[in-house]
Backbone:
């Protein structure tokens, strides 16, 4: 993806960096996500003022591209992710997916096209097969035996796991089952919310491998929240650094000059992000 | 005294003698250092004052026997039950008062209309001697089950919010995503009633049946009333908890199938 990766970004800082709006316009068809002036505040309790979660965030992600969100806990990374598949409603601003305002799409349809993998893998009662096949009665899709086997294979799991009780899987296996479950919806984009944070190093390695392989084999656009430098490096694409709901820095990992923001450099070197 | 001549009159002095029974609690409390004396004093006084006040009001309503007095009493009872149900929620829910009021009013009205109009066939329907105690029993069951179901729903939505969002993220509607929690809270609310039906009459005689037998009814008539009461309490429990849980679950969801986590 090197060199072809281009994530556009309409934050003030970004304008100063020389990205102009007209450049943005003729790239529109190549963009899977366009996020414009996104803000989110939760109503405070009685007598309390609203709590700001996100503040005027703008960025975009190219089709097949990757974006990693980094920042201290509470900086709004997960919330940005949840705005993309409309699990939470922004107070203002727009999220466009595949050229359309997400508010004009059926949220249930959107969430199948933009699949979310959560930090802690959620296994429902039943076997691995039950967990892969779980879907609303109205849902379409191929959930044949062959497809399930392929999906498991893609995340590095054997098909004999299909009849195992999902509760007996290890943390890494559960996380990979949730990724397979997301893939079975034929998503165009994958949202990963700290997919490796609950895992030990060997499992982290397996999940990172799986994700970076899927990005190329499925031409998936990936937006990930992670504290895992390995995953950031393997995904490439761009880094968006959030602090207190604001965009603090934005950086391409594929840029030829490779000059990284100092804070991101330290983050990638495995240090904790400033403010954490 | 023959069984048909009615209940033994209880003078105010006889009630005063019953106060000695309260002394048993005082003795246990003091002896075991439970520190309940103050609450016990307040409780004793409240029991006397509240029951006397209710007695006086009921005596007046029974004497007047106008439908509007009966409706007023039912309205006050529903208001108190609504407040009691809402106060048992562990975290305030916006609109909880209206949700509880609707759930209790509808479940009580439907059950009461069926029992008074079709089963017992009370004429006129507002005969206070029937409608007030029966409405009280229905309302009490609706209130308890709605509070039980609501509390369980809140704690389940909170502890299982990841599971709900996982379902939403897989394309389920909001209603489908909270269905397992709705089902769990309805079960929690209805199990005590269903279990109660298993042992009714075996351990202790239900209050209404006791009252009827004391008042001189034949036990066979008393049990027939009691069977109706058991079924009616079951219906009130089911309707009250179902309405409350459905309406309350809806408050945590948006039309765009989102879980409003900040309300939890």
Residues:
């Amino acid at each position: 993806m090197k060199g072809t990766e281009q994530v556009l970004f309409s934050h003030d800082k970004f304008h100063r960096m020389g990205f102009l709006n007209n450049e943005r316009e003729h790239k529109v068809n190549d963009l899977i996500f366009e996020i414009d002036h996104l803000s989110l505040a939760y109503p405070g309790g009685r007598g309390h003022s609203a709590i700001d979660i996100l503040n005027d965030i703008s960025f975009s992600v190219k089709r097949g591209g990757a974006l990693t969100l980094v920042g201290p806990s509470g900086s709004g990374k997960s919330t940005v992710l949840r705005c993309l598949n409309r699990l939470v409603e922004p107070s203002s601003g727009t999220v466009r997916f595949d050229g359309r305002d997400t508010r004009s799409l059926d949220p249930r349809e959107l969430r199948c096209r933009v699949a979310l993998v959560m930090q802690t893998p959620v296994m429902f009662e039943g076997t691995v097969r039950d967990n892969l096949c779980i879907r609303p009665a109205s849902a379409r899709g191929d959930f044949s035996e062959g497809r399930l086997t392929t999906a498991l294979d893609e995340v590095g799991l054997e098909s004999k796991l299909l009849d195992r009780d999902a509760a007996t899987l290890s943390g890494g296996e559960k996380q990979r089952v949730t990724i397979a479950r997301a893939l079975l919806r034929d998503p165009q984009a994958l949202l990963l919310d700290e997919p490796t944070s609950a895992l030990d190093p060997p499992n982290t390695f397996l999940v990172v491998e799986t994700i970076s392989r899927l990005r190329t084999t499925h031409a998936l656009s990936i937006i990930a929240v992670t504290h895992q430098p390995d995953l950031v490096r393997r995904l490439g694409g761009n880094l968006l650094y959030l602090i207190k709901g604001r965009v603090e820095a934005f950086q391409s990992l594929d840029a030829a000059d490779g000059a990284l923001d100092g804070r991101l450099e330290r983050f990638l070197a495995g240090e904790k992000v400033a403010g954490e | 005294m023959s069984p048909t001549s009615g209940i033994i009159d209880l003078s105010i002095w006889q009630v005063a003698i019953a106060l000695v029974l309260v002394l048993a609690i005082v003795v246990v409390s003091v002896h075991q250092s439970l520190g309940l004396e103050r609450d016990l004093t307040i409780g004793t006084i409240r029991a006397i004052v509240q029951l006397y006040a209710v007695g006086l009001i009921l005596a007046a309503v029974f004497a007047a026997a106008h439908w509007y007095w009966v409706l007023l009493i039912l309205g006050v009872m529903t208001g108190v039950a609504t407040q009691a149900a809402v106060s048992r929620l562990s975290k305030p829910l916006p609109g909880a008062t209206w949700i509880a009021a609707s759930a209790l009013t509808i479940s009580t009205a439907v059950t009461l209309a069926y029992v008074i109009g079709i089963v017992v066939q009370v004429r006129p329907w507002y005969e206070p001697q029937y409608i007030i105690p029966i409405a009280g029993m229905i309302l009490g069951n609706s209130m308890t089950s709605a509070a039980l179901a609501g509390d369980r729903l809140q704690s389940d939505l909170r502890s299982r919010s990841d599971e709900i969002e996982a379902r939403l993220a897989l394309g389920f509607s909001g209603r489908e995503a909270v269905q397992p929690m709705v089902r769990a809270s309805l079960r929690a609310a209805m199990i005590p009633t269903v279990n109660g039906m298993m042992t009714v009459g075996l351990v202790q005689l239900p209050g209404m049946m006791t009252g009827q037998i004391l008042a001189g009814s034949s036990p066979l008539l008393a049990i027939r009333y009691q069977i109706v009461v058991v079924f009616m309490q079951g219906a009130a429990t089911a309707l009250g908890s179902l309405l409350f849980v459905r309406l309350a679950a809806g408050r945590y969801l948006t039309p765009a199938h989102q879980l409003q986590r900040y309300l939890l």
